[in-house]
Amino acid sequence: MSNFSNAVLRHKTIDACLRDTSRKYTLLDLINACTAAIKEKYGSKVGAKYKVSVRSLQLDIQIMRDKHKGYGAPIIVYEHKYYKYKDPNYSIEKSRLGKEALNQVAELIANLNQYSSFRELAKLKNISQILEEEITSKLHRRDSVIENEERKDPLGLEYFDTIYDAITNRKALCIGYFSSRSNNIMSIIFYPFYLKEYKGRWYALGYKDGLNGVYKLPLDRIRDYSYSILPFPSEYSFNPDEYFRDIIGVTKLSGEPREIRYLVKNRLAPFIKKNPLHHSQKIAYLHENGDMEFTIKIIPNREFYNLIFDYQPHIQVISPREIGLQANERVLEVVSQLPDYTLVKQKDETPQADLWDNGDNLFSNL
Q1: E-strand spans in 172-281?
Q2: Which helix (H) or strand (E) is 8 found in, with range?
Q3: Exposure string for 88-115, b = 16+ CB within 10 A, e = fewer
Q4: Can you tell me the distance from the alpha carbon of 358 to that of 355, in angstroms, rounded to the nearest whole number?
Q5: What predicted TM-score, i.e. pTM, was given to this entire model?
Q6: 105-149, pLDDT tens digit by residue?
């Protein structure tokens, strides 16, 4: 248990308490809240008798108030007993981190970088470099030279920690989510098992009460939640390797995997060769002009057809025929809804009558 991560957890717990205006918090209340949060996170690692000390809590409040070491939090004591924020809208998550806190984060990232060279943790390489540059630019007050694509204020991410906690601790959730079909908020009992990001959107996968099969829930559709009193069924399990093996994205339809053959034009072929549409991709034929034919074996879903559409007109499904026709449906639908640019062009190119030569003399009445 890292002392730094332990301190951050206490700071976030204190922050949540001080933002709660429905009750008053004494120093003892804050100690109990922080103790409960640490026990919930670390469980048996801290022991049943573990308790945050008064000295630690007082030091936490002092650091949170400090602009350089902490967050510059406006924590005040009222009635000589209770703690709260002077500004009820304040939260440490909205504030700037102090230099000392940034240095501690930089140290953690440096330790992470040491392990990113191992093959087993190769996925950490780019992530750790982005994090390192983000912290370094803030410490030295300069513009960052790395930027990863991200959605500004993405919907649903405020529920990420809740879903993650429910997965790791096998908790059932009552989710209120927005249904695009009914244009209404629906309520479901959800047993989450897995979190996955696909094309900048996060999904929770699990089981929906009363429905067979794995249910995928976009986090941006969640509007509220509460913990359900229903127990998490012990027989519920999820194998991500098996689930994602034969699909692209997150949607798994019924049916067996199909071998799909597609032609990629020479301009895009090298990219698709190095960045396969699916791990099963194989080179089937190389044309003299540089075009390449590939095969993949998947269960075709909406994500597959969207991917084919994104690469148009440089990719064509050759077989099976019905999958090729379905892949072209969206292209034909989009084309059918476009305005007739030929007519627009003809209209724009029609020469305007010369105002000086037309039959009506603009100055005839003068």
Answers
A1: 173-179, 184-198, 201-208, 215-218, 222-227, 258-264
A2: helix 3-19
A3: eebebeebebbeebbebbbebbeebeee
A4: 6
A5: 0.68
A6: 777 777 777 766 677 666 776 777 777 777 777 767 777 666 666
